[in-house]
TrEMBL record:
Keywords: Amino-acid biosynthesis, ATP-binding, Kinase, Nucleotide-binding, Transferase. This is Aspartokinase. The keyword Kinase applies. Residues 1-279 form the Aspartate/glutamate/uridylate kinase domain. It comes from the Bacteria. InterPro entries: AceGlu_kinase-like_sf, Asp/Glu/Uridylate_kinase, Asp_kinase, AsparK_Bifunc_asparK/hSer_DH. Pfam families: AA_kinase. It comes from Halomonas aquatica. Its EC number is 2.7.2.4.
Amino acid sequence: MTQVFKFGGASIKDAAAIRHLGRLLAHFPERPLVVVISAMGKTTNALEALLAAARGDDRDDYRARLESLRGDHLATVEALFGSTAGPVTQRVEALVSELDRRHRAHAERERPFHYDQTVCFGELLSTTIVGAWLDEVGMATEWLDARELVVTDDDHQSASVDWKTTAERVRGLDLADGRLRVTQGFIGATPEGASTTLGREGSDYTAAILAHCLEAEVVTVWKDVPGLFNADPRRFDNAVQFDRISFSEAIELAWHGATVIHPKTLAPLQQKAIPLTVRSFLTLEAPGSTIAGDALHDGDVPAFMLCEEQTLLEIRPRDFAFMDEARQHDILGRLVTAGLHAGLIDAGAMRLSLCLDSHPARLEPLVTSLCADYSVARLDGLTLLTVRHPDDDLLRALGEGREVLAERRNATTAQYLFHTRECPATWHIPE
């Protein structure tokens, strides 16, 4: 059965990384295998800066940035192929020239459209180089243009998939000839052929789209960590790796701020019961973590999510009336308009408390809007701790010595809001 692998930018950041990728893939001779690849390293950031320059007046800055992008990719080609670099160099040069042409053609168009027509070249460049290298080292490879497979609407920078048409195109692929397929993450196209991008975590999402349409056996997301952890190892000194959790548990963790797989990636896999495994591209023998349909292992260990730079808003009607459904509907509607997510919501008879990211560009207009119609108390400099599957002893230990400013608890989840100044730089999960 078909497998789908996804590699992010860190795994192909330079020539040495691409060589390592080739050695890794040599351990997986089974076919069909579809490999989804992101842009190299920080290329998307460089393309966004190039986009800004293209839409500005400083042509020298634009030319310098374009030349830097070109030079970085050609240096990788030279390091990989040496004296045989000619054909790959020509393909890279052609892509950079086409990128330049599109910048000039679309500089006066609305930014989201311009963004999608140009930022997609990061993935086109990376897959061109990687596909050629895999061929070079003896892996028969076919390069596929994801824009001819993933069909979307024209909501640029956050396009929605046309599942019926996409499935027809993907299922029309002949994968039985033993070749490895390399394609791009993050990008698609409208039925008219205009490039689109899939928004946050778009490359993971591409892997899930293809797996769903191909009814793949498994999706493997290769990262620079060995799997999924019950807490951020950078902040918790005794975090442990999950062996297996369910789709629903992974979505809960993501909702509460964990940097696990995005829910939009999990949804098409859950529909077809296709497991997703996270593995390390640095340590092939590491066992990895699996997200699948069964919930047998959910709650084996508690999970911890920290959200810092939080603000607590306590909102009350000015007429001392109830905080009824109509008022809650109004307030939460304004939250949606502001593009903010409430990590904690707690309601009382005459108040609604919201814990929000302290994102000035989004938070300040929301606060101004609410103050026009409600009484609003505000507290900044907070940390929200969410714990999945805790017991009472664990929660007592975590809260010891800290003032709890707000809390919420149900059968599976507890949330506590603390002053950040009372929180340690490194947490230790009580035994």
